[in-house]
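Fold this sequence, please.
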Amino acid sequence: MKPVRMTTSPKPRCKTGAWTFAVLMAILLGARQDAWAIEHDKPGCPPFALAGNRIVFTHWYYIRPGQPNYIDKQGQRVYAKKAKYDPMELQYTYEDRPHGIRIVAEPGQRIGPIVTQAKPWEGRGIDADTLLFDGGKYRLWAGSQDTDNHRYKCYFESTDGQTWDRPALGLVEYDGSKENNLLPPGAHSVFKDPSAPEAERYKSVWHSSCSPEEFEKYRKTRAWSTIATEMDHGKVHAIRAAVSPDGFRWTALPDPIGFEPTDTQIVGYWDARLGRYVLYTRSYMIGVRAEGFPPPSAEMYQLYCRRAIGRTESKDFRAFAPAERIVEPDMDMSPTDQIYTNCRTTIPGAPDHHILFPTVFDLNTDTTRVEMMSSYDGKAFHWLPGGPVLRTAAYGQWDGGCIFANPNLVELPDGT
């Protein structure tokens, strides 16, 4: 992995995009919330406890702001001392000052396609769901579509992140044979849970729904979003999940794990520091409807809702409260920009260096771009200047049309 470079030149930059951009792009080819910020139940100040083995400068957290002070005639520091001084006799000084530092997201390196269509069930394309470096190899859970518009879940493996195999899993029959890389239902947004028993070591989450009649049995016992019951008449938006011992054979949980209108990418993980499961979801910028007015149509909801990113956490993987909105379109964005997906991940080797690669959908131009955000706690995220890290290529190219980022960021064997 290439090191982050910090300099004191007139316009230095901390390179946060020094890795080969190994977050796979999903491309169609052809119930409690902790307080944000300070953790009041833990001691503070350096040296900071690290969850991994490296520090990467993607925000100001590891860069001290410096200390103001005042010097008397004898050259003694008098800041915050309980004594009377003539203000005209004191000189202001700024100690341990950071200077000449900018943190900038570098554009990602565009390499590909690295997985090409080769099987009948991939006739209309392959889209990535989750990439993990697991057990000494790169593992990719994906989806595909054949020329008859049937959709499948499939699995790929690689030893170098560049050349990918389709292992014969023997799980799903296609055209009279199980010698293929197809997966049974359940593999969507996958993560590995080191805290779980072996039978549930791998977990998967996805957006789904239930009928209003089915929802009635959860109404009094589970936390839920009112908008989830209104956004699409005739169904209630929900989050469902499955568990697996190996990432191949999946068992769907019988009940939804959440009720909120998160109708696209959901990313989950186990946070060892918090001792909780965390989900990043689709959220919305939307106000409270005035009393006495009926629910709007689904089309009106889409007209008024501006897409954003939400976060929720729970000790129980089987029950989450509706997410708190943590990221909204920034004020220097276009009013037609919407944050479509979140692509939450971490810096390889640093699980406490939280990263988002949100896909921004410009409704005015019908284009997408991938930006970069960072956080030291997974809650308060900051937009990195210098983006976007990826733009949609021209229509007709392998990554043309639109582009979406899916987790995870991984380190390749050569350190990129």
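Residues 1-35 have pLDDT under 50 and may be disordered. The chain has one domain: 14-53+103-391.
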